[in-house]
Amino acid sequence: MLTLTLDKPGAAPARKLQLSLNKGAAFKVTVAWQCDASHQDDIDIHALEARNGGNGAKVSALEEILSTYNTTKMSPKTGVLPTAADGSFATPSGGLQHSGDVRVQGNTETIVIDGSKLPAGVNEIPLFATVHKAEHGQGHVEGAESEDEAAFADIEVCTVTIADEGGRELGAYQLSKEFGEFNVVQLGSIMHGDNGWEYAPVGRGFTGTFNDVLGHFS
Fold first, then answer.
1. For 17-41, how does the pLDDT look when each residue is reduced to its tens digit (9 = 90+)?
2. Strand ranges (DSSP E) for 39-142?
3. Residue 84 burial (CB count, 10 A)
């Protein structure tokens, strides 16, 4: 396992970005990407309602995993999060809300984090991006061998942006070329502590499926 860095466009990334002293604050995380159209790669973003008591962020229930793979639409047999008519979905608390799966590059996926709705004890929100091959405008092929072939080397630009509830941009981070061999990256974590909410860019690369990654957080 490698621990890498994130490149912040135009500047070296700060280790932590202080967001707010208000535990009820809301933030919007947006991921955008561009790649060679011939690759037809798709990036998804995911988040966890985690608790970190000093031994790393952990989740203990499927309901705490905000991921398209955990929706009843994507995974009817195992998904636990219902999908709304507009494609969006959320954790039962409403603390994490996903805009819905977008499979065409040039668009964005967003997650809204509402601190006032997060369950008691949740103090860290790890954020992830995964990349896999998918025909643009068509569905994922769940379990397909070809999905394992995609990696971030195929993505020319992948940027994560953090904004407050008023839309003010608080920080923007771009994945560096160091992530080329990986197909899953922990972009960072939004954490609550003595100084309020902070965003820490992590840049931790994984090779495998999202379930393999969850093994590190459960």
1. 666 666 778 889 988 877 665 556 6
2. 41-48, 65-66, 89-90, 96-98, 108-114, 124-133
3. 13
For CA atoms 208, 212, 214, 216, the dihedral sign is negative
Close Cβ partners of 54 (under 8 Å, ≥ 6 residues apart): none
pTM passes above 0.70: yes
Residues 6 or more apart whose Cβ sits within 8 Å of residue 11: none
Kindly give, in sequence order, each residue whose CB lies less than 8 Å from that of residue 44, ignoring residues fewer than 6 positions away: 67, 68, 101, 109, 129, 130, 132
Question: CA-CA distance, 180 to 154, in Å (whole number)?
Answer: 7
At 28 the three-state DSSP class reads strand
Q: Pairing between strand 108-114 and 26-35?
A: antiparallel
For residue 140, give the DSSP letter: -
Alpha-carbon span 68 to 71, nearest angstrom: 5
- pLDDT at residue number 185: 85
